[in-house]
Each structure stands twice: as C-alpha cells, then as structure tokens.
Design goal:
The chain is mainly α. The chain is 67% helix and 1% strand. Helix 1 packs antiparallel against helix 2, helix 20 packs across helix 21 and helix 24 packs antiparallel against helix 25. The longest helix is centred in the middle third of the chain and has 44 residues.
C-alpha cells in the first residue's frame, strides 16, 4: 500500500486537476496529458501493490522449496520488498530465519546477506550509522516470534565475528541499556539488553569490560521494579565465560561475595511475591548464575532450598497478619504478601534431618499452603536437579581431569627420563577433557563393544574404565535421589504424591510444576527413570491439561538423550501426540521428534508416516518444520528410501480415510526428494508389485499416482514393462491410465533417443492393454505372447551386448520350441532377481 506522503501527493494531484477543469482554464495538451499519466500511474501503482501484497503469503512457500533457485529468488524478493516498505513482506522476512538452520551453505549465506542489507545498510557514517543499526536491530527483534529467537542469535554471533557489529554499535547498545542515550524508553533498553546477550555469546569481552556496570544495574532500583531486567543482567553476566575456553580456567565468585548475597536476597523477595508474572524465568537465571559463576554451587543451592523450607514452616502462617520478612528494607517482600491466602490446598512437606524436630508452635502436618509457593518450590527443585547433574557431568569432571593433568605435569618435571610416556598420557588427558562424563563412558563402551577393530590411539595406555566418570555416574544414580541424608530423598515422595493425586491437588499450575519436576528428576538416575516411566506415560495419556502434556513431551525428549534404551519401548507415545487436536501440543511433538530423529536418538521406523501427515497440518509452522525434516533425512544415506514403502502402505490404508488430494500433497513432496536412479528403479518395481495386493480402486489410483511422480530413465521404463502383468487389468481405470500417460508425456520431454524408444515401446504395450480382443480368435493371444517374447529377447540381447564389453558373455538364446508362458515367467523371475541384487547392493553400500 502507499505511504502517507504518497497518498497526499495523489490526492493533491487529483484536486489540482479538478480545480483546473472547474476554473475553465485551458491548459496545453501536454500539461493535460502529463496530469492524466500521473493519475493513471498512481492508480496502477495502487493496483500493483494490492496484487503483490496478496501474492506474498503464497510466495512464502517458495522459501521452503527444494530448488535452490526458487529459495534464492524468494529471499531476494522479500528483502527488496521489505526495504521498500511493502506490506506483507515482514512475515516473509521472519520466516526466512528458519533457513539459518539449513544444511545448504548457499541458502544460509543468502539469508545472512539479506538481513545484512536490511539491517546494516545506511547512508550515515560513524556514530549516526551505529545508532541507525541499533534501531533496525531492535525493531526487528521486537517483531520476531520467540521461536525465532535462537535463529537471530546465530546471525548476531556471525555479525559480531565478521565485524558488522563493531565496538561503536556495542557502545550504543550499552548507552541504551543504561538509559544514557537521550530519549531511550524502558522497552528500548530491554531490547538493547537482549541484543547484548546475543552478541556476548560470540564475544565475552563485551561483558568482562563492563561487569561492574551490569552488576550495579542488576541489584539496583531499576531491577527491583522490573524483575525481567534482573534476570537479563544475570544471563548477560554468565556470558562472561569464554565459550572457547576450558571450563576450569575462569574464576568463580565466593559464596559470601556481596553481589552473590544480593542476588540470593532478591531471589527470596521475588519468591514470595505472588503477582510476579515470570517467576520461572527469573529463577532459571538465578540458578544458572549460581551454578556457572559461584564456588560450591551445590552447597549454596541446598542452603537456599533449606531456607525456603524453613520459612514455609515458621513464617508462612503469619502471611495473613504480617509479612513473611519483617525487614523494613525489603520493600518488595512487604508488598508481595496478600491479605488472604487464596487457592490453598492441604500439603505436608517433610522436614529434613538437618532441621530437627518440628517445634510445638510450628504449623502441624497437613496444614494449608498457598499454591503459588508450592508450585515455585517444585520448579526450583526440578531445575536445581538438572543443573546439579550438569555441574557434576561437566564442571566437576573437567576439574578432576585438570587436577590429574597438573599432577602429571609435576611428575613429568621431576622425572624427565620418562618424558615420552608422560607426553602420551598428557595427550590422552587433554582429549578426554572438555567433554562430559557420560560422553567418555559412551566412548569407552563403544570401544569395548567392537573388539574386532584396532584399539583407538587415544585410548592407548589408558585404563579400561574412566574411574572419575564412574564415580560421577554413581553419584547421579545412587546419591542425588536415594541418599537418605540428601534433600531430594525427602522431597521426591512429596512430588510423586502430588502427581498421583490430581483430584486432591487440583490447581493446574501445581500439577504442571510437579509433573515437570518429576520428568527432570528422572533424567538424573536410570533406576528412578525406569521405575517411574509407566507412571509418567499414564500422566501423558490421561491428563487433559495441555501444558502438562507439552512439558511431558519435552521431558521425554531429554530422557531419550539421557537413557535411550529405557525410552525406546515408549516412543509410540511420542507419535501419538501428532494426532492431538491442540496445535501447541502437535507443534511441540513435531519439534521434539524431528530433533531426536535427525540426531539419530530414535530409529526411523514405520511410525514415520505419522510425521508425514504433518505435511498437510493446518498450522503453517508445523508444515514448514515437517518439510524441512524430510528434506534433511533425504540427505542422510538411504534412510528415507528405506521407509518409503511403509509410508505408502500406511497412508494408502483405507482405514485411515485420508482424502485423496491430501495424499497427493504428501506423496508429491516426499517422492520429489528421491533423486538417485537406482532408488527410483527399485521403487518402480516395488510399487508395481503392490498392484496385485490392492483390491480397492482408490489404492490403484494411489499407486499409479506415486509412479507418475518419479523421474524415469531407460532401466526404470523397462521395469514398468517387465511388471506390466501386475497392473494390466488396472489400466482400465481412467485415473490409473491417466497417471501412466503422464509418465509417458513427462519422460518424452528432453529424453535421449534410447529413452524415447523405450517410452514408445511402453506406450504401445499400454495401448494394447486397452484393446478389445475377439474371444473367438484363437491365434490372437499366441501372436501377442510371441510379440512379447520377441521384445523381451531383444532387450536380453541388447543387455548381453553391453555386458560383452566387460568380459561377460550373453546368455544363449532359448530354443524355439519352448512355450511362451515358461519363457515369459523366466523373464519375470530374472527381472525380480535383478531387482533383488540391486537392493542388496544398496543395502551393502549403506
């Protein structure tokens, strides 16, 4: 549509023309012609803009095209339209972010260049240019969805590395973040903080050079009035750790450091603030900061949870009459206490041994507590458990390996005569550092499972097992949850009890928090996971709460990475979520399944047909993710080819009642991904062999339609002719015949003479299938069989001549006295043997 200035100009020209005509002034023919052309140009511009704007939603589909030229042209079109301010192009620019994850480098480069043109191209210089770039980045960040945040983060990291986001742009971002740039709003400051978080992941010096400023804002008055700012500052401070550096080389804060104490205090203030909207995000940032930046984070977090539990027992009953924390300086906590405790339910939280016996004046077991407090407490337990496992698996493990490295270094200095042996040990230690204990155990177990191979050079001189990894595994398996002196040992029964009694603990947020925490506890110990797996599946199948279902699906994804053998029998519950009516649940299931399948954590089996149905989902995002998924697995060896027969069988099942036009949409996309000639030849024969087993005309049409989607060469056309006896009677159906005619017309285009000859022969034989024969003519069948015999013999002779060059002799011609039926049967069997050998060779190559 036209901009405001253009509309004003258009109206002024019209009024000028009307005024001149009304006044009776005679203008020259040239002036009048110029006015008419101007008005007509503006009308045409409006019409053109309207047509193009209406076409943009359809053009977005080209961004997901299988052809690179279509994608590149669409990217250029949306970029140009966006720069001219054409309505509708903004949606295309946001959808382009998905191409950041494409495996095709050409597409990724095109997207990066497109955003560079839009966001970094200005006519200004120096500081004015930096301000305009920050404005463009902030505007674009505000427009994108949360699901595209990670894609933009990847692009920002790339721009930082290549210098597009330079020191001047970072300075302007900090000026906006600190409100030093005149005219900056709170929303612009928040957007600047998010951009700094993205940029600092690629360059940690952005944070290290401004740590004091960030910490002052994090615990200042601005953060107390806006907790999201506090959480963002903590995320920014965590990025001060160099991602390329070893986890053991940076210095952690003491637990009694002033800033750490302020962070813990602010956390307690927010915890008891009932009206705080995004507590989960704030708590995530606090726990992430503690585990990444503080010494002894496990002790610190355990003390934090004990303090919360202590306040539950001794202070919360006074919430109706007095604040939980009587500290006058704690303004946030004072404001947070409600006059009445709403949504309360009976709950008894057991005390740990460290708390001692409950005092007579304390709250008795079974008393009521505010639901929001229990929900937040459950969330903290679950996330703390996940961070504790990662802390042991990564930080503690790397630190222990680092200590071994230092010990080895000292021994090497004192025993120089054994320098060679120590150097080999040092190399091993360095190769096993900066990985998790779980990865090391997998690596060692894989080596033990392949005794026929030569030993890995990296493991020469190493012990059979990594003792440190075994110790960490034992802690996760037997101590975190099952240690009688541990905090989780006393809290886990409460979490399970809440999940088991949704009728008693009815509040949806409480059930959501408890289920999410249960799934996170299961990621720690395989024993705990296995014992509660069926219970978690019952929750997934029986609950009507969509949030609980989504959380459970995400939890199952994490469990699959952690314990794939335990989760493997339950993968059917994953695919079942693809058929749910709720869009959010289907979208979550598609994202998790595609992630697991592409990372080969779940084997691609016949259930993949449920994913194929998502190609026709009513939600565009689900369609895009599913298409990209099939495009990726098509590039992975023969995975898609191997499951195609199962997809065709499942979607062609009459019990599924899939509409025919939807079947065509799915199969046209999937079969379009098959490009290898040998795979196409094998598919032709497999599809032809399905005709005799199809007893419904709909199935005939589906098989014929799939055949029409393939690209044919001479060998595949011969496969069609050799298997004509399987579908000779099916050609009488108009739709089946039309599909075979489509094969002929498409193959004849730009075909070589040899291929055209094969197509002509196939066309002749196809026409013979429709010919009406006189049943009284005895010699008709024999002449037809003789003609088929001659054609088969000619193809056999031609194949023999081709193989003679390679040293192999053609098979001798059959005696003339052999019956036609025996010869035709042998030809068909030979074709099947040839196809089987082709399939076997492909399997061997896999």
């Amino acid at each position: 549509m036209l901009e405001f200035e253009e509309k004003v100009f258009y109206v002024m020209e019209l009024l000028k023309t009307y005024h001149l005509l009304a006044a009776g002034l005679k203008q020259s023919s040239e002036e009048m012609l110029r006015q008419i052309k101007t008005v007509q140009f503006l009308k045409d511009s409006i019409d053109y803009t309207t047509i193009v704007t209406g076409a943009y939603p359809k053009l977005q589909d080209l961004l997901m095209s299988k052809t690179n030229t279509d994608v590149l042209e669409a990217v250029d079109l949306f970029t140009t339209g966006y720069m001219f301010g054409i309505a509708g192009t903004d949606a295309g620019m946001r959808k382009m972010l998905m191409l950041v994850w494409s495996s095709d480098k050409e597409k990724r480069d095109a997207v990066s260049e497109a955003y560079r043109r839009v966001l970094f191209t200005t006519e200004l210089q120096a500081r004015a240019h930096a301000i305009r770039v920050v404005q463009n980045l902030s505007k674009f960040l505000e427009e994108i969805d949360y699901g595209h945040y990670l894609s933009l983060e990847t692009l920002v990291a790339e721009w930082v590395n290549v210098g597009q986001i330079d020191a001047l742009v970072i300075q302007v971002l900090f000026e906006r973040f600190t409100l030093k740039l005149e005219g900056t709003t709170n929303n612009e400051a928040r957007l600047a903080l998010e951009l700094l978080i993205m940029a600092s992941k690629a360059k940690n010096s952005i944070v290290t050079a401004n740590t004091a400023i960030i910490e002052d804002i994090a615990v200042g008055q601005r953060a107390r009035s806006e907790p999201r700012l506090f959480a963002g500052c903590l995320r920014l401070l965590v990025n001060s750790i160099d991602a390329n550096n070893n986890a053991k080389y940076y210095k952690r804060h003491n637990t009694d450091a002033k800033f750490v104490v302020e962070v813990i205090r602010f956390f307690f203030d927010c915890f008891f603030h009932e009206k705080l909207k995004d507590f989960d995000g704030m708590a995530t940032s606090v726990l992430e900061y503690i585990y990444r930046m503080c010494q002894s984070p496990d002790v610190l977090v355990q003390d934090l949870l004990k303090e919360l539990q202590k306040r539950f027992y001794h202070n919360w009953l006074g919430a109706t009459a007095a604040p939980v924390n009587a500290d006058k300086e704690n303004e946030l906590a004072l404001e947070s206490q409600p006059t009445e405790i709403a949504y309360t339910q009976p709950l008894s939280i057991p005390q740990t041994q460290t708390q001692g016996t409950q005092s007579p004046g304390g709250p008795p077991p079974g008393t009521c507590m505010p639901v929001f407090l229990v929900s937040r407490f459950m969330f903290c337990i679950g996330y703390m458990t996940i961070k504790e496992m990662i802390f042991l698996d990564m930080d503690v493990y790397n630190n222990m390996k680092y200590r071994e490295e230092l010990t080895a270094q000292q021994e090497r200095d004192t025993r120089t005569q054994e320098a060679g042996r120590k150097a080999a040990q040092q190399q091993l230690l360095r190769r096993t550092m900066n990985v998790s204990a779980m990865e090391v155990r997998k690596r060692l177990s894989n080596s033990a499972a392949e005794p026929q191979q030569e030993p890995d050079e990296d493991l020469v001189g190493a012990t059979a097992e990594d003792s440190i990894a075994d110790e960490i595994l034992a802690i996760c398996e037997d101590m975190l949850i099952y240690d009688p002196n541990g905090l989780l040992h006393w809290l886990t029964p409460v979490i399970i009890d809440i999940c088991k009694k949704p009728g008693e603990y009815r509040h949806p947020k409480l059930q959501q928090a408890a289920t999410l925490t249960l799934a996170r506890l299961m990621t720690v110990s395989s024993r705990f996971c296995e014992s509660n797996m069926s219970f978690l599946m019952n929750i997934l199948g029986l609950t009507t709460n969509i949030k609980i279902k989504c959380n459970t699906v995400v939890g199952l994804s994490d469990l699959t990475f952690r314990f794939p053998n335990i989760i493997e029998p339950w993968t059917g519950h994953f695919y079942a979520q693809l058929h749910e009516t709720d869009t959010e649940l289907r979208l979550t299931a598609v994202k998790m399944l595609s992630h697991l399948l592409l990372n080969e954590m779940i084997r691609v089996k016949s259930q993949i047909s449920d994913m194929a149905l998502c190609i026709i989902d009513e939600n565009e995002e689900i369609q895009s993710i599913t298409k990209e998924f099939f495009k990726e697995i098509a590039n992975k060896s023969n995975i898609l080819y191997n499951v195609l027969p199962d997809i065709i069988s499942r979607l062609g099942d009459t019990n599924l009642r899939l509409e025919e036009h939807k079947y065509h949409i799915i199969m046209s996309y999937i079969l379009g991904l098959i490009q290898k000639d040998r795979q196409i030849e094998s598919l032709v024969e497999k599809l032809c062999l399905r005709f005799p087993m199809a007893h419904v005309e709909r199935q005939w049409r589906d098989i014929a339609y799939c055949l029409s989607l393939l690209t044919y060469n001479e060998r595949s056309i011969n496969k069609l002719m050799d298997n004509m006896h399987n579908y000779r009677d099916k050609v009488q159906n108009d739709d089946v015949y039309a599909s075979f005619r489509l094969i002929i017309s498409n193959t004849n285009k730009l075909a070589k003479p040899e291929l055209k000859a094969a197509v002509t022969e196939f066309e002749t034989r196809l026409a013979e299938c429709l010919a009406v024969k006189d049943p009284t003519a005895d010699g008709a069948d024999s002449s037809q069989n003789q003609a088929d015999e001659t054609r088969t013999a000619n193809r056999t002779k031609a194949a023999g001549n081709r193989t003679k060059k390679g040293g192999r002799k053609p098979a001798p011609a059959a005696p003339a006295g052999r019956s036609t039926s025996r010869r035709g049967g042998r030809s068909r069997r030979a074709a099947r043997v040839e196809s089987s050998s082709d399939d076997a060779s492909e399997s061997d190559s896999d």
